Amino acid sequence: xxxxxxxxxxxxxxxxxxxxxxxxxxxxxxxxxxxxxxxxxxxxxxxxxxxxxxxxxxxxxxxxxxxxxxxxxxxxxxxxxxxxxxxxxxxxxxxxxxxxxxxxxxxxxxxxxxxxxxxxxxxxxxxxxxxxxxxxxxxxxxxxxxxxxxxxxxxxxxxxxxxxxxxxxxxxxxxxxxxxxxxxxxxxxxxxxxxxxxxxxxxxxxxxxxxxxxxxxxxxxxxxxxxxxxxxxxxxxxxxxxxxxxxxxxxxxxxxxxxxxxxxxxxxxxxxxxxxxxxxxxxxxxxxxxxxxxxxxxxxxxxxxxxxxxxxxxxxxxxxxxxxxxxxxxxxxxxxxxxxxxxxxxxxxxxxxxxxxxxxxxxxxxxxxxxxxxxxxxxxxxxxxxxxxxxxxxxxxxxxxxxxxxxxxxxxxxxxxxxxxxxxxxxxxxxxxxxxxxxxxxxxxxxxx
Amino acid sequence: xxxxxxxxxxxxxxxxxxxxxxxxxxxxxxxxxxxxxxxxxxxxxxxxxxxxxxxxxxxxxxxxxxxxxxxxxxxxxxxxxxxxxxxxxxxxxxxxxxxxxxxxxxxxxxxxxxxxxxxxxxxxxxxxxxxxxxxxxxxxxxxxxxxxxxxxxxxxxxxxxxxxxxxxxxxxxxxxxxxxxxxxxxxxxxxxxxxxxxxxxxxxxxxxxxxxxxxxxxxxxxxxxxxxxxxxxxxxxxxxxxxxxxxxxxxxxxxxxxxxxxxxxxxxxxxxxxxxxxxxxxxxxxxxxxxxxxxxxxxxxxxxxxxxxxxxxxxxxxxxxxxxxxxxxxxxxxxxxxxxxxxxxxxxxxxxxxxxxxxxxxxxxxxxxxxxxxxxxxxxxxxxxxxxxxxxxxxxxxxxxxxxxxxxxxxxxxxxxxxxxxxxxxxxxxxxxxxxxxxxxxxxxxxxx
Amino acid sequence: xxxxxxxxxxxxxxxxxxxxxxxxxxxxxxxxxxxxxxxxxxxxxxxxxxxxxxxxxxxxxxxxxxxxxxxxxxxxxxxxxxxxxxxxxxxxxxxxxxxxxxxxxxxxxxxxxxxxxxxxxxxxxxxxxxxxxxxxxxxxxxxxxxxxxxxxxxxxxxxxxxxxxxxxxxxxxxxxxxxxxxxxxxxxxxxxxxxxxxxxxxxxxxxxxxxxxxxxxxxxxxxxxxxxxxxxxxxxxxxxxxxxxxxxxxxxxxxxxxxxxxxxxxxxxxxxxxxxxxxxxxxxxxxxxxxxxxxxxxxxxxxxxxxxxxxxxxxxxxxxxxxxxxxxxxxxxxxxxxxxxxxxxxxxxxxxxxxxxxxxxxxxxxxxxxxxxxxxxxxxxxxxxxxxxxxxxxxxxxxxxxxxxxxxxxxxxxxxxxxxxxxxxxxxxxxxxxxxxxxxxxxxxxxxxxxxxxxxxxxxxxxxxxxxxxxxxxxxxxxxxxxxxxxxxxxxxxxxxxxxxxxxxxxxxxx
Amino acid sequence: xxxxxxxxxxxxxxxxxxxxxxxxxxxxxxxxxxxxxxxxxxxxxxxxxxxxxxxxxxxxxxxxxxxxxxxxxxxxxxxxxxxxxxxxxxxxxxxxxxxxxxxxxxxxxxxxxxxxxxxxxxxxxxxxxxxxxxxxxxxxxxxxxxxxxxxxxxxxxxxxxxxxxxxxxxxxxxxxxxxxxxxxxxxxxxxxxxxxxxxxxxxxxxxxxxxxxxxxxxxxxxxxxxxxxxxxxxxxxxxxxxxxxxxxxxxxxxxxxxxxxxxxxxxxxxxxxxxxxxxxxxxxxxxxxxxxxxxxxxxxxxxxxxxxxxxxxxxxxxxxxxxxxxxxxxxxxxxxxxxxxxxxxxxxxxxxxxxxxxxxxxxxxxxxxxxxxxxxxxxxxxxxxxxxxxxxxxxxxxxxxxxxxxxxxxxxxxxxxxxxxxxxxxxxxxxxxxxxxxxxxxxxxxxxxxxxxxxxxxxxxxxxxxxxxxxxxxxxxxxxxxxxxxxxxxxxxxxxxxxxxxxxxxxxxxx
Lengths: 449, 449, 511, 511
Ligand SMILES: Cc1ncc(COP(=O)(O)O)c(C=O)c1O
Ligand SMILES: Cc1ncc(COP(=O)(O)O)c(C=O)c1O
Fold this sequence. Notes:
Number of strands of chain A: 15
Low-confidence stretches of chain A: 441-449
Largest sheet of chain A: 7 strands, mixed
Shape of chain A: globular
Low-confidence stretches of chain C: 491-511
Helix content of chain C: 25-40%
Distance between the termini of chain C: 26 Å
Strand order of the largest sheet of chain A: 2-8-7-6-5-3-4
Largest sheet of chain C: 7 strands, mixed
Bound molecules: pyridoxal-5'-phosphate
Strand content of chain C: 5-15%
Helix content of chain A: 25-40%
Radius of gyration of chain A: 25 Å
Order of helices and strands of chain A: HHEHHHEHEHEHEHEEEEEHHEEHEEEH
Number of helices of chain C: 17
Strand order of the largest sheet of chain C: 1-7-6-5-4-2-3
Shape of chain C: globular
Largest interface: A-C, 215 and 213 residues
Distance between the termini of chain A: 62 Å
Number of helices of chain A: 13
Oligomer: heterotetramer
Structural class of chain A: alpha/beta
Mean pLDDT of chain A: 96
Mean pLDDT of chain C: 95
Radius of gyration of chain C: 26 Å
Strand content of chain A: 5-15%
């Protein structure tokens, strides 16, 4: 059995003596016999480091990861290349092992990272204020809903069907708590949010309107038009965004979005079967005192030296308790660090170059597959197509070591033969061509190419 | 093409200006045209980090490592479990990226590690002085030969055939330089060094006598007897040792060895296809001023504070040049760090427990295989057996995902059907039993079990 | 410029780069032909332009301004800052875990599902509550899940309840969660022994009460001896009893929330089951519950079918999804490795030594020279942590708890949690954890003694502490009054002169 | 005890442990039944007994006492302290590399052999010498290989040669190697322009000379314009011309040792081809040579057979083996990744920027306020490094080069190589490398200026520097006089009191 404790026999004697008790047992007398477990936990015995490693390595070997296959699955998390320096920096105990920087004088590293992260997110989203991270994408959307409620005191949320299914689900789950109704707006025949329908759904009870850029199908939305329609009655326009796509797309903040939130995984975080990653939360200046989560601010010390602190804490649970603007405490600081390091690694030019590479490969892929597009309009890094005999294609592809994409049927029954195909800088033209040849064989005569 | 340089266009202009030249070309005018390359290097163009990663990962995938098969191959390097904290500590830039601690005031970390390493090696070998590392095992043996020459000014070296073939080869190669003859002493029928033959080979010209504990076949040698026979005429007794075996075996220093050297890989270092690892070099007090390599010593600073420095540097090339006791400069500091962390991780009790586990599994394995033993005597972690139809067994085993051991034929033609089988804590009884069933099928009727 | 405090943005120089794009192996169609003009980004995001060497140095140097657990003692009360075994980083980084896509079909993710299943079974056994969802992202997210489950449970029974009870010692996330879940907070008092005031509880536990949120041991580090009576009262009122698992480190293998009568519990995997805290996450807040709550658990649930595993989405009464995908799997890997390493005996050992260490340190602080200044609040045998009051030091030495904490920074130990719980004046909440040695505890007591001794001579030293840290006391009021929450080139900027002129995309108007 | 300088042995407490053995799954036969009594270890090695958390803290805290390349500027002349790309650690750690046994059959190690082959081809092209052995463990090992090859070459021709020429500017390993290789060292002088004194060379290059060891650019950072004439003289004498490749960073893709007339060259992969220096290794010192030397290269050689790769052991004229197995493969992986990343254009870029940075820094130091005190030795366009003399500072300010170096420690920059090469009085040998930015170079010049300014006011500050480091100037003389090279429990020891009594296994008699 592994042990991380240090108490020796001798320590035990001395410590019990100092406490003034006979045995460890004596320290637990407050616990009524009647609620004692009175037996060993029904768990396996402990094992050595080596044995635990072998066990977990054996489990890992039973997963087919992006190291084992060529995957075109995205749908919210993407197989981007994570640069090595992120491993090195996140592996440093100085970043890895401290907790929330409650003592700023010995936490300037973490606090400055938060400040830099907030700056980078502000740059991406085109909004002046960002927090230091929330849990992840869909719960960030739910948090935006809560802010909309606090801000407007209204009762209704309107969400595009183009919003990630998990975001819509999380929004509904949380709204059930803070007592709001969620109304869904359909997509038009091009796979974009139906602007008229959205305009119609919004009324004086509407606290927030939710769209996603690009939307779940990969469609580049006309955020400007949606904002105009959505904000008519004073609701907040919440835009969920793929941060990578913002390398080439106009920042939601420049198009009228009040809040821009999203999933940070594409920014230097591993897939990790879905987490941990980070959520980002950016807002217009007027919401700065209603934001959820930690915010680092710049200030000076008694000697006038530049420094950083957690600021605007009167929003937070540890100060305001039931009056807090959100209950979040532990967030995703380490993942946010990966995010800002990743963006700094890409740099001003590299970020744009990456976006353009994805844009080109994605359009090339949609061409190459020659299948009917569900969303024929502009896309950045992901698109949806109809695949006649989808199951068959999936099987053949998997046999060939390729995971062709995410089937839409579960989340969009209306696209029962739909496949969502994502491209990253790791998916080369050669990969794309191999996928094309696999599905190409399936294209029925006369199907639109 | 990847770049790790920082000079921008603007920098270039300013810097050339400050230097007072027009172009980079002007900085190379000292190089005669006639020796200029005058063309591009005939190498591929540079690639992105991601592409280089993919290329090297593809190469690595074409090796069958100990992660891919159950290996019983040892013969000098062993598949021990390397604890995770070694990755963490060796990955710290503070240990990874500085060079030799020429400035002790800003190198106390590295210097104290050397001092601790020397202490651990001294404990293992039973000799009072150890240096901070040499390259690796066989060249450490050669270095011991050079010390024997410097010490005795004699011309002959006597080496047991039980010494690792690579050590004998390296000794011969280096001796050809410093002008010494190497005489080999055979093994007896039990696979141990022939004490009489050794006694006979030693004479007044003999500078050093080389034995290995356990020897290459895994045999536990009677080092005491060999030392007695070898030192008769004043030669130095050099014992090469497997540091892991010293957990259960009497330290060579307590048995008359003047020098104890060896391969450090088993101590927390990866296999790495043969390197980098480290060599250790321990000696009796009288040789402290003839040792090769860096040695850290304890001292005090001007304020009386405890500290460490590189000491006895008058032995070394950077001070003594042609009069140096060895030419070594860059050694294996990082690997030695892994060694002392590993030994501290094992600890006083754990080191013994590990040795006893190997001892028991090894004897169990020799029993279980039921093959004719080449060295029937005591062994610690490795043993040699005769395998009728060896090639066949090898093939069947490899097909079953098992690498049964190292065939002796190349290094010991006299054991053309010999197989050297090594056991580590990673080779469980179940692995051993699987190997046994594979070779067992091959045991001819009436063969000794 | 190199050594002072400079952001990565200020280190930017036009033309530098670390990243190099893989070759464009498809036609280089102009962006304008692929995207409509009005959606194309006009100005690039003003990200730093910096070389890899300088990027590594920037963050390496920054990191060294952090105090961290691998450096020294970190008795931050309620946070369970125990050692993070290095094995966990190795297993979490295995490509089979780290590069596994969350939407990989279950048949190709059997290892991951088995790991989640095994972790659920272990957590259920430790809690004494059989049904587990790993989905919540942290403790407070687990709390929210717990109240959403409570709401769904009551609504399913046709009951409308509007209030949730929390002790006045509760952690801030409890009341904050109550509000977010659409309930009204009702505080329950604390009795003289530090436990729940039963009379107050009886009075407030009416049929409009949905839940009592409790942690036991509580935030004073005390085990509530009346837990069975508390459970009876709450259940008689038809409310659920919620267990805030942040303090579970005290009782593993000794007593279980389920056996105490709790209906729902959240775990802080990043506390009890050791995660590197990462400067404020990531963590995970799985929940466990009893049979009557089970139908409402989030989707998807990991289920075992024969000897394979699958996700179950078909749960009609489920509260739905709390977040994307299935939770912080990378966190699960680490906590599962921890449970495998320690096993049944090791986990009990953890709690016993955690309690031993806390009581030993409490005993050291109860000695003359300290206890006059830092009296122990509710002095009785504590569990994994305890609380002292700085009231004595404030009155007799004129130094506040804050001053003591700041002075500790000069002694290379992390201060305890301060000014919490609120009902203790000038509180210091001390949780040593089981992975600390006796020497560390002795040293900490010596540091406190030294600080108090020093204050007798000259309180100003503590009042103006810290003195040896990268920065000294910072102006937090000013930071909140005029918040500067992102770097702007307008600010004096050693960076690329041009950039100083033109505002970035988001510069317009803001702040 | 916790913060001062304490060895890991002194932290030991009987009964603590980090390691836990895997279960003994075979019969627990007593050791006495498996080993003869007289070979069994009587007393266990006195290794530390310490828990994982404290072990991690010990070495983490120790590490923070090191200055390192990822922290700041490290212009250690002749050592080429360039950035270590983090990618290299990732690819070296791939199990297919890290867990590959050196005796794996070639057919199951094709990836590794191909990597070694590709690296050999690249190094051969860069050196202009086609035949490469990767085996030597470091530069000095490569030098030894070079002289053993020279000896074998001459003996094969029936020649006996006894002398090896080295310039007086040569690095210490050159003469040390000559002695180890059984030759006599003959020094060749340096001309006024910093190059080899041709007349002296002509005089000494007799038929008893086996080799001239040279580095070009030399240790002064100067390219020897007469290299062709030098080669002619050496070859006319029948000797080999050996290239010490430590300074190759200056000329990649611009000129090649082979084209200059060298017969044998060693590479310092840990310099030119960036390895993390690890506090003093590991490195690797591959050698390349011309056709006439090739037959004598060490065994085994990696060879290509069709489209697969193999080891060739059958080389009758080979000098044999220099070490175990096939060399420091983990080092090859990193250098190969480096060459793949930079490619033909990137490597040339490296040398150009390395030379640019050196000349720019030289220009900064040639300005008033510095050059009076630190005149540049042999002032002409330098290559990747240059040497200044502290003679001016010594005479006019009364501070030695050592004092200047020690004062730099207080400014968070690593001092240059000092007191080498020997023929420059009070030498400072400065090699910035190409991965440093202009800001770093400017800062370094500012630091030097500040130190000199300060010394004008008060030389004592530098004479007693450093002032801000973990320890200050250490008693090196005392350390060498009474060497204490291992910890002993006899020494005052805060550790386990018992241990202080009984001496460890090796305690007897020693020191
Ligand atoms: C008692 C208690 N409850 C709840 C929480 C909230 O947990 P988390 O930070 O994971 O959201 C904490 C953590 O600080 C805590 O100490
Ligand atoms: C010029 C020169 N030659 C040879 C060497 C020796 O190389 P190594 O340290 O790798 O043995 C060095 C390294 O310091 C050097 O600078």
